[in-house]
UniProtKB/TrEMBL annotation:
Gene3D superfamilies linked: 3.30.70.270, 3.40.1170.60, 5' to 3' exonuclease, C-terminal subdomain, DNA polymerase, Y-family, little finger domain
Major localization class: cytoplasm
Official protein name in the record: DNA-directed DNA polymerase
Location(s) in or outside the cell: Cytoplasm
Annotated PROSITE patterns: UMUC
Location of the UmuC domain: 1-148
Role summary: Poorly processive, error-prone DNA polymerase involved in untargeted mutagenesis. Copies undamaged DNA at stalled replication forks, which arise in vivo from mismatched or misaligned primer ends. These misaligned primers can be extended by PolIV. Exhibits no 3'-5' exonuclease (proofreading) activity. May be involved in translesional synthesis, in conjunction with the beta clamp from PolIII.
Amino acid sequence: MVSTASYEARRFGVRSAMPMAQARRLCPNAAYLVPRFQLYRTVSEQVMELLGRLSPLVEPLSLDEAFVDLEAGGVAFESVGAREAGERLRRDIRAVTGLSGSVGLAGSKMLAKIASEEAKPDGLVLIEPGTERELLAPMSVRILPGVGPATGEHLRRAGMTTVADLVEAGEDELVRLLGKSHGASLHRMATGYDDRPVVAERDAKSVSVEDTFDVDLHDRLRITMEVGRLADRCVQRLRASGHSGRTIVLKVRRYDFSTLTRSETLRGPTDDPGVVREAAARLLDAVDTTGGVRLLGVGVSGLADFTQEDLFAQAAGEQVVEEPLGPGDEEAAPVAEAEAPAPEDPAQRRWLAGHDVRHAEYGPGWVQGSGVGRVTVRFETPTAKEPGRVRTFRVDDPDLAAAEPLALVEPAGAECGEGGGAEAVREGEAGAAAGQDSPLASRPKSRSEGGGPGSGAAMSRP
């Protein structure tokens, strides 16, 4: 599935949540990138730190958006102060990360979210108090939280397509159509009323990781290995959050886009990678992957802040019974030598589109695509002014190696290296498509979403 798409690709009809096969048909010359979530998290932490300087009340919604209560931070009590804080935030985001940010300012979370949408891709929109109803009236009912495709269609059949239609219908009619809770809530929001507070802390309910593959996986051994790798990554994230969990969840999206979820609950919470790997493998055994798999995911839920030792050896071979040594046995006791890891076969190296590499001769670049034993690399840096040169190599080229992402902000006094670069970078464009009309499908420009609370700002980074 497409996670997000650049503005260039959207002109060809590519949209978020679209099947990747459909996106490739609509925009065949785009660059399709594999997510680099570790980098996204790093940049997200930098932005969230900037938001924390504005207010103690910051409510993250995702990696790239959050609500901020500016009034609680004492940085804005009226429109002028809020605008100044928003512009300062946008400058700071650019200086620290090299990315653009969109800021929406309003008296409620709902309105600030709408304002941030209007501010994209790189701007600031402030909704003045007293103008809310006038602003909302001509908008589609789908702009309101809680109105999805099904509710929107139900309202359309009742003759309500704009927010003004909802206000005119009145609360009683909406309650009749949608039920007491939903109808009353929707009427309040249609009149511009949203009293939801900014919540700074939210307890995590689960930890999970997943990967979408460029080509459907058919090899059962390869699928099993991928599940094991995802289980290890999930446990790393679980431990980093200071949690353990009882329920292991496996997610499989098959070739026909049908999605299966299987789970197993253990006797007690664990953060043992072996236990999670084996549970995920057992769940995979019950899933038919004959037709191919395009997405795999492993998660842990039922979180706790402690672990329970597995007295019954949930992981096979976990327990080792030690017999006391007799006289003279110490010398005879065999000592097992650790096996050296098998060297990686260069011909089997995976080059994921969008990931960073370095070539001994051409320097830093990023993978534009790979297949049939070849990998195509564009050699450019985030701060270069022009698209870089493209070269194709064998996947086992000894001069080509994976590399850490380059800094998005050029150090003071540094000059751009050779090979030019696209104006925008890839952050936020997980699984996205670059514009067909950009030269040689250069890196897609990014975008993100945000919204913010009363006297609050909604931030987003590309």
